[in-house]
């Protein structure tokens, strides 16, 4: 049974269709604890059927219909006279089980919500990108610790139109800030609010270099790996040009010759000949 890990649940019937399974279940408990005063109650007020969705089974969508009961609270001082029984594997007012929600969160965090909704359909999960967004909005933010080692670089909100600055915590490898702009004043304002920073990894931008020197004069500035290799190759190229000019000219001639070399069919003036 796909929900055999659920405690105190009895399966009454299984309905198999082409693309889904329907499980009719009920609770084995004859009593329930009031969520407000924690008093054990045996008196049933009424019952209704609750429709849920669980993780897919064998590639098919899994639905659960559970008979849910309402109880009277026997504590006269309790403000909640009637309450609905709770289940550990299901949240209050939820139509998806907790383990299905965790699966959807993992998929949505790995990609965009729209792509995750399309992928979920292939996995046998019926959902929308709006539902995935609501699940992500409920996530608790990780605990924030003052950054010590950061990396800073620019990126494009819209190429050739609008740029911003992204700041990464080098210890956790996660972004901690996105700034609306890459000018000196914007970067200085953010850096001054984080005096705990000791090292900053950056590219060859003079704007970032001046901003770091002004806001954090004590911090070490480190060139990132890509720009180190680029500087190394540039230095090697300039050294070869100066030390071996004749060899370098021949190399450049071969490169230009290869760029202008065409296949025989490209030189054909008439298509019939080719």
UniProtKB/TrEMBL annotation:
Transposase IS204/IS1001/IS1096/IS1165 zinc-finger domain ranges (all copies): 32-76
InterPro entries (alphabetical): Transpos_ISL3, Transposase_DDE, Transposase_Znf
Entry superkingdom: Bacteria
Key words of the record: Plasmid
Pfam families recorded: DDE_Tnp_ISL3, Zn_ribbon_ISL3
Sequence ranges assigned to domain Transposase IS204/IS1001/IS1096/IS1165 DDE in this UniProt record: 150-259
Protein name in UniProt: Transposase family protein
């Amino acid at each position: 049974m796909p929900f055999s890990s659920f405690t105190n649940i009895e399966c009454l019937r299984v309905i198999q269709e082409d693309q889904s399974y329907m499980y009719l279940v009920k609770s084995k408990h004859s009593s329930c604890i009031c969520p407000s005063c924690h008093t054990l109650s045996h008196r049933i007020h009424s019952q209704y059927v609750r429709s849920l969705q669980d993780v897919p089974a064998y590639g098919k969508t899994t639905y659960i219909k559970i008979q849910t009961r309402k109880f009277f609270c026997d504590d006269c001082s309790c403000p909640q006279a009637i309450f609905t029984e709770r289940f550990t594997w299901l949240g209050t007012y939820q139509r998806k089980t907790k383990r299905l929600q965790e699966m959807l969160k993992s998929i949505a965090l790995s990609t965009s919500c729209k792509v995750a909704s399309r992928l979920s359909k292939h996995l046998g999960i019926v959902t929308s990108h709006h539902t995935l967004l609501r699940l992500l909005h409920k996530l608790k933010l990780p605990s924030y610790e003052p950054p010590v080692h950061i990396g800073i670089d620019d990126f494009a909100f819209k190429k050739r139109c609008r740029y911003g600055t992204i700041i990464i915590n080098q210890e956790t490898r996660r972004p901690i800030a996105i700034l609306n702009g890459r000018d000196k004043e914007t970067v200085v304002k953010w850096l001054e609010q984080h005096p705990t920073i000791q090292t900053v990894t950056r590219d060859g931008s003079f704007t970032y270099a001046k901003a770091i020197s002004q806001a954090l004069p004590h911090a070490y500035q480190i060139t990132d790996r890509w720009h180190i290799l680029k500087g190394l190759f540039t230095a090697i190229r300039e050294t070869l040009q100066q030390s071996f000019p004749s060899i370098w000219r021949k190399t450049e001639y071969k490169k230009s010759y290869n760029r202008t070399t065409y296949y025989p069919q490209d030189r054909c003036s008439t298509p019939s000949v080719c």
